[in-house]
Each structure stands twice: as structure tokens, then as C-alpha cells.
Specification:
heterodimer, A: 31% strand, elongated, B: Porin, 2 helices, 8 strands
Amino acid sequence: MRTGALAAALLLAACYPGGAETVEDLDAVTTQHDPAASFSTLRTYALPDTIQEVSAPGGQPLPMDHSFDTRIIARVASNLDAIGLRRVDPSVESPDVNVLVTFAATRYTEYTSYPFYDLWPGWAGFGGYDGTWGVYYPWATGTAYVTVIDAGSLRIDMLDQRTANASMKQVTAIWAASIDGVLAGDKESIVQRIEKGIDKAFAQSSYL
Amino acid sequence: MRSTTRFLLAVALLASSAALAQSHVRLSYEFAVPQGETKNYIDRFSSRGGHLDVSLELTYAFHLELSAGLNSFNAVKEGVLTTTDGKDVSGKQFRYLNVIPLMGGFAVHIPLRHGGRIWAGVNGGAAYFDRVIDLGLNSYSRSDWQWGVQPHVGIAFGLGDGGTALFFDGRWQYFWERHGIPAQQYFSFGVGLLFGGAPQKRK
């Protein structure tokens, strides 16, 4: 009876999704747009052949492998073509929008202080130390538990060339997409996840 | 005058002891099934929950009920989440909902043989809804109190003469829209132990 109840409890607990189990589970695609923009009047776009490296705020920038630029740019271009836009050479014809593709790869190292009871829940302490005490690691910056995450973010910005303000040197972004994830696994799998994210970004932007 | 006061005090003490004999505490494990907007947010039953009920007999069979509980839901959902600042975010959403209902109300308890009983009642109060969505490396949360009602029924089977009983109960938990958060509802079903419900000994 007791064994059966325990087995049932374990079975129920096992059925519950507790959070991300693979790196793909942490992939996210975010899109934003200017509600005032008239996307239906767009006809042409310009797209550079390379991906610009940028650095994200905070964290340590990681080097980027540009050997996949062509493939990623082609995926962006095929999605833009699919929504009825025509790619033009900006030196020959002024496009309605410039589409910029940038990438940021960043290593985030987090030092988190923690009290004993976070590490061993329910533990009463020892030798007079209770849950209000922390652990000091001399080799780390302060009282810390270290978490390292390599995160990557591919960003696609659609800049409205028609409303560019030359005097202020300002161009308005009317659509932006960010394909975010953890940089883990082989390069091919990372690129496949990026391609899937690009498709998702356009698919969830039905107004384009 | 002095004897009258003593008489009244004696009556009050006898009455309170009789009442306390019928008063009891119920502690239950609970699972819950979301309905309506709650189901839209988390379409998965919860197997993690519990309730503590204190039942105080006011008059014969009529009880004041005080109730506190916790129901934890979680589920995975794929789709696009539109945030309050106008972002559309897609990816695997790990959704969590913790509800802490704190209620008070009344119930009618009908004694059965061998220390058993059935009851039905309605509680009213509020619940704290804590909603969290983990998506990618970000977390989105929205928490607030919502007013609600909690009709409930139960049946208990005595486990000897000590007043302890095994019981099963069911509740419909409904909470009204508040601060733009739509009305929430779910059914919860509990199994637990009733303590202190000794068979009635009227003086």
C-alpha cells in the first residue's frame, strides 16, 4: 500500500514538465513593429551580404564564425522575397527599406551569493552556523556561486529608408526581430536553430 | 447577582465545550482541474495541492469554515506570447501558476454513523495568483489577488472512536476579474484526514 502510494506520487511528479531540458527549449524569437508603419506599401529592400558583429550590454563578447553568413543572409532574403519584396542593389536603386542583420555572442558569468539553506534545503547548519551565513570563495568576486552561459542573439532590423531624416541622421526601424538562444552544440545545429528562428520571426509577423 | 453570573458562565463554558467537540480540522492533499480562462493559461491538471480547513460548530450542524490552500499548476505551451510592451515572443513557454486561496464561510455538517459525516457549504474570500512564464532566457510574471467564492462538498468516514476520519471533498473555485486579469476558475478534489471530529455527546 505504502509502496503503491509512493510509486503513484513519483509517477505524477515525473509527468510534470519542470523546465527546459535541451538548449532548443531555451530558444526564443521576439518581434516588434511600428504600428503606424505601412508595410503594404513596401516594394524593395537592400540587404548587406555579411552579418555585422555587435556587442551586447554586459558580459564578455565572444568571437563569431562568419563562415555561415551567406547561408543565414540567404534565409533572411528568401523570407523577404516570400512576403513580396524585391531585393535591390542600393548603389543602383534606392530601396524602401534597409534590412540589417547583426549578431551578438556573449558570455555571461554570474556570481551569485547564496546562504547555506539554499544549497541544502532543510539543513539546520553546523557548529553555530545557520542559514544566514554564506560561503566566501577567495578566488571569486565576493561570496559567490558561479554560472556561465554563452548566449547568442541574431537581430534583424528593417529600417525605413523612405522616412530617413538626413538632418538628424536618424532612420526609423519599423520591424525588428531577435532570435535568441544558448550557444551550445555543434555549429551546424546552431545554424539550423537560427534558420528555424528566422522563419518563425516572419511567420509570427503576419502584418508584413 | 453573583449566582446568576456564575450560572451564565457555566452555561457558556458547557456550550463552548460542546461546540469544540464538534469543531475539527481537515488536512487534505488535492489535485485540481483548470476551467475557463485558467484552462486557457494552463491546460493541464495539477497534482500538487493541499488544503487546511478549520471547521467551528456555531450551532448544531452549522459550522463556520476557515480555509487556506495551495494549488500549483504547470504546463508547457508552444506559441506566441504578446507582452504588455508590445513584443511578440515565440518559443517553448514553461508556464507556472500558484494559487493560494484564503477563504472563510459557512457549511452544514450532517453526522453519519461511526463518526462519519457529509457536508456542503460556501466560502468566500480571495486568492493570490502568481503567474510566471519562462520563455527562452527571460521570465515574465504577473501576480495579484482576486476575490472569489468556493462552494464545497465532502464526505468523511470515521476511523475509530478518536474522532479521526478519512474524507473526500470537492470544490469549485471561482475568482472574479480584477485589474484586467480575467476571471479564473478550477475544480479541486481532495483526500485527507479529519481530526477532532469526535462523535457528538450532547449535554
